[in-house]
Amino acid sequence: MLARTAESLFWLARYMERADYVARLLQVAGHMSAVRVDSDRRSEWESAIIASGGSLPYFAKHATVDEATVIDFLAFDRDNPSSIANCIDTARRNARTVRTALTTSMWDAVQGAWQELPRFRDAPKNADLLNDFLEWVRVRVDLFHGVCSNSMLRRDSFYFLRTGQFLERADNVARLLDVKYHVRLPQVSDVGGVIDYYQWLAILRVVGARRAYRVLYKGRVEPAQVAELLITRSVFPRSLAFCYQQITHHLDAIEDQDPVRVAEAKRCAHSLYADLRYASVDRIIDTGLHEFLTDVIERTEALGTQIAVGHLF
Amino acid sequence: MGWPDDVRTPYALIDAWLRDTPPDQLALKRREAEVLFRRIGITFAVYTEGGDAERLIPFDLIPRVLAQAEWRNLRRGLEQRARALNAFMHDVYHDREIIRAGRVPERLVLHNSQFRPEMCGLDLPGQMYAHICGIDMVRTGPNDYYVLEDNCRTPSGVSYMLENREVMLRLFPDLFRRNTVAPVAHYPDELLATLRSLAPPNCPGEPTIVLLTPGIHNSAYYEHAFLADEMGIDLVEGADLVVSKDVCYQRTTKGLERVDVIYRRVDDDYLDPLVFRPDSMLGVPGLHFANRAGNLTITNAVGTGIADDKAVYIHVPEMVRFYLGEEPLLKNVPTHDCSKPDELAYVLDRLDELVVKAVHGSGGYGMLVGPHASRDELAAFRQQLVQRPHDYIAQPTLSLSTVPTFVDDGIAPRHVDLRPFVLCGADQVRVVPGGLTRVALKEGSLVVNSSQGGGTKDTWILED
């Protein structure tokens, strides 16, 4: 397939996945600031910005953090490349440039989202609308990934799309875990000590893992177990191990490559997958969760570059 | 209401249908049609509004109908005209017999901005140049068709012909059960067969065919994607292609892959920065040399603009006689060549009765519709005509036929034209029964261009 097509499919999936993640962040930040009457509400919104990776553009534009500004920034701001509205716009632009590689239902899913977007973006903002919007985003993204599963031929275009989706998800999950660690637990020794129950609960909420946690761990939310669930448990579809299982699988499925050129991308993916799959959470926490996550984020970024190099993007 | 009681025979069924269908149901269908078009994303970009604004071309529910006999005549005329135009292009870039015979003035060809000396002496597969022609016609009376324009460069609109039919089939399946409408959906197959027949002399086997688009900001991008999709070929941009040692390749995830035939929707000027505009980012350096080396076919060929100039148009009937030895089946609109002093004088005398068009203009720009023009517009055009008579031609305003059209206050007659698409392969000429009908939505307006607010209709050729 055309290298440009592969690249656009890869980014189409990444931007759809990112829209979903930012919507989840906002939903949880809103929820947390509402239930925690005793807390400093500002921090919920601030960590949402950090977890979205948008600190730089945000603080370049705004001096202070408050609910309305953060919501607008993460949901609709055109100056924030990762705002949900921009993610959907960018995804649709990628979809348009590779329209011939999409199935009709994939196009419908992206085009439909893009067409309905102004209904939310241009409406007067209030809490109900925001809730509707965030719910809508998640349903739309699920629809998109669902129609990909149900309508695409299992060929390179599908594998590039899925690789993009799970690379983005891995990056998001690693950042999410890291930002909570960073914001709330400045010292390694604090882990398991003075932890904020609600903060760890919030992480579970963002990745939709509360039920999964209960099924797997039964009891009260413990940070080490949250970390384990999100790092090594490949039965959970938003864990890093699951993401990397998918990445290696789909990367290997891409047909008939020059083995030398793609070797580096495969090496990056498989070695990180092995590290995640056989990781011991206790050891990670002993040696530093933040250090571990930083390594995952950097290697994920390097993998993205190597995929582009290996497949001539 | 809105059309004479003596309904033309092909319209009898449409007439009955419209009388039977309650107006509110039609209004509902009209809204449904709009939703469908938006969802499919059939839009065209409007450059003047800044950014990449996408707008829908209004769609009219009431089909335009032609009887089989009417179409048969048209079709023969179209094939004839396309053959003559292609023969003319081959001649112009080779021996120029028509010029030596004094039938077409030399100045018109050799001093034409669309003439590409780079194409001289190059032999093309089947001696075909304009592989996809969109010939615009109007009807002025029973079996009276006039050709308005021969679009030989990169005519667009065929996706509307196909999507209009799709939408009609979805909205009014009953209507098709009651009528025998010739299908058009096989157009992409015919186009692919045409492109395949044009494989270059050095093609190593089954040709690899791609569609070259300027990209998503082009007004016809939807159509490019649609056609590539329907044919199952790659839609490429300039940056996806590379020419090495006079062979064209596309950049794939596996490396370079040879390309043999390009259906290009990029204009000549932007096609190859080594030969044409050096600042073009849309084209591919070296494409022209791959073409000349016999390693690549470019469709439509470079330099076809020489045949669809409005001043060259005047001579098309002569081309039919000269190359084919036949009488032309389709008529030209009587056209005054303003570069001739006596004709210019005539035109200036009757400016308020005539339509004046810029020779190189398109999209309804740079034209004057005399009977509808203000005093100031007339004066301004008069001045331009005197200053640059070579740039203009003039035609009488035809009494165009109208067809019933669904407008805001009901059903009313509106002017239409018709653009059938003629495919000229190295093996045969193919015409799919139908075409794009454009309709002037403004009352009394003669301008059907989409950039001027025109709409489209489904076009039905009834089978016997």
Automatic annotation (TrEMBL), chain A:
Sequence ranges assigned to domain DUF403 in this UniProt record: 1-308
Superkingdom, natural source: Bacteria
Pfam families: Alpha-E
UniProt name for this protein: DUF403 domain-containing protein
Lineage: Bacteria, Pseudomonadati, Pseudomonadota, Gammaproteobacteria, Lysobacterales
